[in-house]
Structures are given as C-alpha cells and as structure tokens.
Amino acid sequence: MMRWLLLIACSSLSIAQAAEIVPLRVQPANTMGVGVKALALPDTLRKDLSSGLTNRLVLSIKLKVAQLTVSEKLVEVAIKFDLWDERFVVTIDDGVNASTISYARVDDVMAALSELRLLDLFELQPLRMNQLHTLHVDALLNPIDKERLDKIRKWVADNSAYTPSGRSSSGTTTAASAGTNAVFNRIFEQYSSSADMAAVWREVAVSPPFTPENLPR
Length: 217
Fold this sequence. Notes:
With 217 residues, this protein is of the alpha+beta class. The chain contains 5 helices and 12 strands. The protein has one domain. It is 23% helix and 39% strand. The radius of gyration is 20 Å and the shape is globular.
C-alpha cells in the first residue's frame, strides 16, 4: 500500500490533449487499426523503464458515431527491462492478439511509444458507411484499478498522518499534513466513484471525423 501512495504523492497528475489519433485501414483483413502519435509521456519515464519493473501504458479506445459508442477496445503496452539480457521487452496486447518486440536502447522504446500502430482493432463491415466516426483515446500510464484506488483512499483516510482539516492529532496544523492533504485531495478529486482506473499520468485525444470508406491505408 505504501508503495502506491509514494508513487501517487511523488508524481504530478497530467491530463493533456496533444496526441494525434489516426484511423488506419488494415489490408487484406479489411479491419481498422489506430495510429497514436506524439503522446506527451512524462520525462521520468526514461528512468522508470530501466528499473527492471514492468511499466504499463493502457489505452482505452472508443469508436463513436456522434456521441454513441459503437465499439471499444482496451490495449495494454507493457514494457520491462530484462536485466539478464539487457534489453527492453515491449508487449502489446488488445485482449485478442498479442505481439512482443525487444529493443536494445531506451531511446528506441521511447521512439516506438511515440508512434504506436495498433492494428486489427475493429471490424469494418459492421460500421456505418457514409457516417462520420471519431476515435477517442484515453491513455493512462501505470493505472490503478478502482478496487485498489478505493483501498488507497480508505488507507489514507484512516491513517493518522492524513486528516481532512490538515491538523495533527493534537489539533495543531502542520505544513507537512496540509501539504499531504492537498496532494491526495487533488488526485482523488479527479476520479468519480464510478471510474474504472486512475493514474498519475493521463492523456486524452480525439481523431478528426472520418468515414469508414475513406480510411487511409
């Protein structure tokens, strides 16, 4: 529990919209993929990738017509540095298909993450031709699921160092407790009780409108 608290407290929540989302036609399967370019990943990621721990980039991808979601996919990009072989192993898993590739340098991993091509995500045949579609991508780095987040929230609320008023058990206000309260309040307020996942880094982006019959290849 403390490990998750330290990760949250030491990281700043980032929500931005800078990435480029590109729909792709995949031949000969006649399916649709998604290109995700220029994610504004945090500067600390380079160091984190070399730690030997698995880092997870999770992308929730929704295909919409107007405000109606017609299909959705959850894609996980897992990156782990193999300390024995001294190579970075990247696995992309969309729940149906998984692929793995290894890289010798962290720069190569960062370059791959900056231009992801996620193929065969959606079937084209059921889509509504001649109607405008959009792709909505919500990317989270090392997300915490709702169950774990609720446990962290409870742990923080029950811990004597965290008090809603920012006061110590003796009733006096301390700079440390006030600062801790501000950090956790800011993070927890980002997520409603119905949120499935939370993360200290998040980026959302939407593609320009497109019609299925005019997809780039």
